[in-house]
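Input record (one chain):
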Amino acid sequence: QVQLVESGGGLVQAGGSLRLSCAASGRIFSTLAMGWFRQAPGKEREFVATINWSGATIYYADSVKGRFTISRDNAKNTLYLQMNSLKPEDTAVYYCAAGVQATATLMGVTTTRGYDYWGQGTQVTVSS
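The corresponding structure, as predicted from the sequence alone:
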């Protein structure tokens, strides 16, 4: 089992920045694939960014590429998402996800199927 707790969400004006954190406990964090997803009202949960167990492999959704940066600190069991140049369309609940690396690779690291564990989410609201 893995427990995930997100923090860092809030209200920010367009063009501003936020840094999300995801604290993990339970299974050995350094062996897990980690990802960020988001869900806006009335929409499906969508992929934002993912990072493999070592931090060597990273993917971003086209909509956030160049603005968001995913990173992890395996010594602190924590995942981060630095969000810059925020836009109103970034408004959503942001979820942290974790999965066994082999499973995530097989099922797709950019899909929700690749992850077994989810946090409760943190709201990000970007005003225009």
